[in-house]
Each structure stands twice: as structure tokens, then as C-alpha cells.
Give the backbone structure.
Amino acid sequence: MKKICSLLFSFLFFIIAFSQEKLPNPKTGKNETEIASFMLVDYRLAFGGQLVYRFSWRKNLKIGAGGLYGGDYDDSYSEKNVYGYGAAFADVMQFIGQRQKWSIGSQIGHGFYNREFGSLKLKAGIYYTISGNYRAIISKKLLIATSLFIGYRNFHYKAAQGLSENNSGLIGLKAGIVF
């Protein structure tokens, strides 16, 4: 499953990069909404979607807020192997170049996760990502965005013995539309 999803995202990125029109970027200096799907891997595999609204603060900088929700796939032998993970975050995007096709972005916020293993409880903590992004200009009102990101999801285990943390980094791919 991981290989198939990675191949699909890679194929989508290369098709978009080489088949776009030579239009001016319609989102330069304007507010925007992005809807994207993502795949990430830390010690689990997760698929999901996110919604972000950004407003133009300066010509090459946009700030905004958003949320994401996905399914964490657990390979253990429990009855249920998909657990929901959500996060609310602030978003910053710095564009590179005149047409603003390339950018560097960051998201930071708090995750939402609630899972119990008998007396052990798992809660989510901080969530952040840093990404390199590419946008393909499809029409006068539509862009397709792809990105590769690295980040961190903090989980807290609360047991009768005390508190311990599982801190693992993540890597992921994201593809979506901007309008």
C-alpha cells in the first residue's frame, strides 16, 4: 500500500510539473483556500485530508489557519486497526520567485487523538511540519499544489506508573487544489 501511494503521488507531481499552462499566477497577493489530501509515515502510516485558508500578508508571504483529519493505520493485532487523528494549526507560506510556483511552508498546532489500551491512555500533543511546495497553474482560478514535508507528531502515554512520551519524526506527501 505504501509503495502504491508513493508512486501515485510521484506520478501526479511529474505530470503536473510538465503539463501546465504558461499563465500568470492568479493567487499572487490574494487570499486563497487549499484543500489537499496527504499521506504521512512516522511509526504509523496515515492518510487524510486538510483544509487551509490563507490571506496575503505581504507580496511573497501568506499566513493562515486550518485543520486536518486522517486515519492512522495500526498493524497490531487489535480488532480495530484504523484510528482517527486530527489537528488544528497555524500556517505560514513564503514564496520564491515572481510567479510564486515554489514555496517553503510551515504548520504548527495541536493534535487531537484519544485512544485507550486498558489502563494506558494515548493523547496527542504538538503537531508541526516544514514543507517544500510546488504549484502548477492550471487555469485563471485554479492551481494544483504538491508538497513534500517533514514534521513531528507528539503523543503522550498516560499510565498508572507516570507519563512518558513517544517522539518520532514524520515524512509525507501532499497533493491538492488551491482556489
Summary: The chain has one domain: 2-178. Residues 2-178 form a domain with the Porin fold (CATH 2.40.160.20).
